[in-house]
């Protein structure tokens, strides 16, 4: 986090040179002060798309003294300006480079589609910016390794935005498992199905389409969380294809030591109950629905609900004010000078990417990025 002592909220007139990059600020830009200790974490938003909208709305459910959105960048300035106006963001940039040069940003949230995660992560981390990048981290493990290596080389904080891990439901699951509430876990069964065939980025290979990367990652992340980041001993995957040549339905079995198992189904053609069950030798934990953004947990038959806040503006995705939890986790990491989160670590992201690669290999899905 930058150490810049300037009077807070000094509103400057238009005569002020643009903060950087050349685009004239939309309106007088309050000078955002920053003091390492307990000032707001200053966010830059990369892309003016759907999830960026929801992430920005989620940030607004947190105390403004803790989180401020200082700038947004989109490929087209007009899209950034429209986004900035909608969300009252002081600075709007045409092109991501201007955001990378903005000295008043502590962390960038990357909300572009998967094929552009690698290039944008490298852009911002090479500019010494901390980064929170949407899932899936990348198109394959090779790209994921490049991103994680760049975070190390640039000595910046990096996290893959597997927002589910920061939900109160996930925190409670980890607590229950840590205290042995259900004994030794022997089985994790999960599913994620959603009718997405009308969504270009889910259908078109050049936009990063494919069910494993988009939906399967949620079943896989739950499995890996329950099994504490342990590598599976064997992976068996089968699936079907969309007419566009990417995976539509994936059925995956992961075998771990001591006859521990995980099975998941993900599909982009129909809605499934989207529940998960974690079975131990002494009990059962069940997520009764919305496994990617859970607000209810059933432990040995007893249900507890964990509602998310209502959005102040329209959102595109279910429960996406729940991204507040990952945003606050990032802030806490930055305040402690950490370069990664223990809850969604670099090793966690690499494991997800490696298993995603193996599932795709067995099913036969190949992206152009696999041969670059
Ligand atoms: N955590 C969650 O719950 C969710 C996560 N996601 C993830 O977020 C990412 C974005 O998804 P979503 O917001 O639905 O996507 P959008 O279709 O809204 O696209 C997001 C941005 O990506 C850029 N982009 C889109 N198409 C292209 C293209 N053809 N060439 C170059 N850039 C392009 C644009 O950036 P610009 O504005 O700069 O033009 C666009 O605004 C995905 O990786 C997805 O996995 C998505 C939904 C939910
Ligand atoms: O991460 C996501 O959440 C659930 C679906 O909306 C999916 O397309 C999206 O990428």
TrEMBL record:
Domain Gfo/Idh/MocA-like oxidoreductase N-terminal residues, every copy: 42-159
Catalytic activity line of the entry: D-xylose + NADP(+) = D-xylono-1,5-lactone + NADPH + H(+); (1R,2R)-1,2-dihydrobenzene-1,2-diol + NADP(+) = catechol + NADPH + H(+)
Molecular function GO terms recorded: D-xylose 1-dehydrogenase (NADP+) activity; nucleotide binding; trans-1,2-dihydrobenzene-1,2-diol dehydrogenase activity
E.C. designation(s): 1.1.1.179, 1.3.1.20
Domain GFO/IDH/MocA-like oxidoreductase residues, every copy: 172-286
InterPro entries for the chain: Gfo/Idh/MocA-like_OxRdtase_N, Gfo/Idh/MocA_domain, GFO_IDH_MocA-like_dom, NAD(P)-bd_dom_sf
Keyword Nucleus attached: no
Record keywords, A-Z: Oxidoreductase
Domain of life: Eukaryota
Listed PANTHER family: OXIDOREDUCTASES (PTHR22604), TRANS-1,2-DIHYDROBENZENE-1,2-DIOL DEHYDROGENASE (PTHR22604:SF105)
Family to which the UniProt record says this protein belongs: Belongs to the Gfo/Idh/MocA family.
Protein name, as recorded: Trans-1,2-dihydrobenzene-1,2-diol dehydrogenase
Organism of this sequence: Sparus aurata
Gene expressing this chain: LOC115580858
């Amino acid at each position: 986090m930058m150490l810049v002592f300037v009077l807070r909220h000094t509103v400057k007139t238009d005569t002020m040179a643009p903060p950087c990059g050349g685009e004239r600020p939309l309106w007088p830009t309050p000078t955002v002060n920053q003091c390492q200790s307990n000032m707001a974490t200053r966010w830059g938003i990369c892309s003016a798309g759907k999830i960026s909208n929801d992430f920005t709305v989620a940030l607004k459910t947190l105390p403004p003294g803790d989180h401020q959105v200082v700038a947004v960048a989109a490929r087209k300035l007009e899209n950034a300006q429209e986004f900035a106006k909608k969300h009252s963001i002081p600075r709007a940039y045409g092109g991501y480079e201007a955001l990378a040069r903005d000295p008043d940003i502590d962390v960038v949230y990357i909300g572009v589609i998967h094929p552009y995660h690698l290039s944008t992560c490298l852009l911002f981390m090479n500019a010494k910016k901390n980064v929170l990048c949407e899932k899936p981290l990348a198109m394959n493990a090779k790209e994921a390794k490049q991103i994680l290596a760049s975070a190390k080389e640039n000595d910046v904080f990096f996290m893959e935005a597997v927002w589910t891990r920061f939900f109160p439901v996930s925190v409670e699951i980890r607590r229950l498992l840590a205290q042995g509430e259900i004994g030794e876990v022997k089985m994790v069964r999960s599913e994620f199905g959603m009718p997405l065939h009308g969504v270009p980025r889910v259908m078109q290979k050049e936009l990063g389409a494919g069910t494993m990367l988009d939906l399967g990652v949620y079943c896989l992340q739950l499995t890996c969380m329950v099994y504490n980041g342990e590598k599976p001993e064997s992976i068996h995957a089968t699936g079907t294809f969309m007419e566009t040549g990417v995976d539509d339905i994936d059925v995956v079995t992961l075998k771990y030591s001591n006859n521990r198992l995980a099975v998941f189904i993900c599909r982009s053609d129909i809605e499934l109950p989207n529940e998960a069950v974690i079975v131990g030798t002494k009990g059962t934990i069940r997520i009764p629905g919305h496994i990617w953004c859970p607000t209810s947990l059933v432990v040995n038959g007893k249900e507890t609900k964990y509602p998310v806040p209502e959005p102040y503006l329209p959102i595109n995705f279910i429960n996406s004010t729940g991204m507040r939890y990952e945003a606050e986790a990032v802030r806490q990491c930055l305040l402690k000078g950490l370069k990664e989160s223990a809850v969604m670590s670099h090793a966690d992201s690499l494991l997800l990417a490696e298993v995603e690669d193996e599932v795709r290999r067995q099913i036969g899905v190949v992206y152009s990025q696999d041969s670059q």
